[in-house]
Amino acid sequence: MLFERKSVIIKDEAPLLETFVPEAISHRDGQKQAIAECLKPILMGMKPRNAFLYGPCGTGKTLIATWILKELESHSSMAKTAYVNCWRRTTTHACLTEILRQLDVFTNYKQSTAELLQMVEKESKKKQLVICLDEFDMLESKEILYNLSRLGIGLILIANDPYALVDVDPRIKSSLNAESIEFPAYKPDEIFDILKERRKYALVPGAIRDEELKMIARLCNGDARIAIETLRRAALIAEEKEEKRIVKEDIQKAFGSTKNLRKTEALKKLNEHEKALYMLLEKHKTLDTVRLFALYKEAVEKPSSQRSYRNYMKHLVQLGLVKSYGELTGRKYEIVV
Predict the structure, then answer these.
(1) How far apart are CA 4 and CA 300, in angstroms?
(2) What pLDDT is stored for residue 6 in this prediction?
(3) Residue 55: its pLDDT value, please?
């Protein structure tokens, strides 16, 4: 039969997808409690405190934030929540439109940003709003942070960069007064625990041994998303070969394709200056910061300032596209293969 599956390893693919939010989340109890403390005032009819979640990719920031929002709505009829990925919606207008969509408020593209903000304000008077702005540092203007905070809306801000709020206007920072909550990279044994939990719900018994799960945990450098996606792809590879169990060769092949996928996604997040810098490093492999900045000024028509250049390089490092070592003028950058 054309569509017959002779070997079945995956019994439910959902727990292996990035959109899956498990009922229980391992190794993030401290972070969950810290965010919950920020939001608890809502239960007493008070304004919540804002939170700033930071840490490397794949450390559970988005997962915990969306889990907390879901929990909050289930425990309080006074709260309404929304989640916005600011990489996909970088303008204030797009961000406000998405917030209103999730609040079940009809909008049209002709409405001005000011009109949309008034509509959000109207909703904020009906219920206590809590809005998560993921990758908020990708927003073209940070003024929206001030506007939403001024309305008494609780904000959960997410970024990879621990210094994402440093260069924000002091007036906005003062208005936010956000509590910083760190999400460090997972340890291999913690990723192993996460993979065991996903295996229980996603795969048939005996589909993969602990030894192979530990291999994935070691490969993924503290990134749980890469680990879970590697497991999913390895299962699909084993099924395609009509095998009954995932083996090391399947994992190696899956890990390679997962890394390439992450790299492609990261490259989409670069602005034109960051792309130029990345291409220079691709060509030269390793460059010291003085030489890289000089080449960058030659390569682009309107180069940015040295301060902006440092921010561009910081973003490339945060996305895992580039490695850096050394300090100040002795700093070197190296392409991540």
Answers:
(1) 54
(2) 61
(3) 92
Those residues of the chain that have pLDDT short of 50 are: none
Determine contact, residues 266/315, Cβ cutoff 8 Å. Answer: no
SS3 assignment for 116-169: HHHHHHHHHCCCEEEEEEECHHHCCCCHHHHHHHHCCCEEEEEECCCCCCCCCC
Q: Which residue has the tokens 């206007």?
A: 169
Output b/e per residue, 171-196; b: 16+ Cβ within 10 A: ebbebbebeebebebbebebbbebbe
Whether 322 and 313 have beta carbons less than 8 Å apart is answered as yes
Choices 3.40.50.2300, 3.40.50.300, 3.30.70.360, 1.10.10.10: CATH for 29-182: 3.40.50.300
State residue 243's pLDDT score: 92
This prediction's pTM = 0.86
Judge contact between 9 and 207, C-beta under 8 A: yes
Measured from the Cβ of residue 86, the count of other Cβ atoms closer than 10 Å reads: 23
Quick check: 142 and 168 in contact, CB under 8 A?
yes
Distance in angstroms (rounded) separating the CA atoms of residues 157 and 133: 5
Q: At what angle do helices 188-202 and 224-240 cross, to 10 degrees?
A: 40
Q: What pLDDT is attached to residue 161?
A: 85
CA dist., res. 238 & res. 131, Å (int) = 41
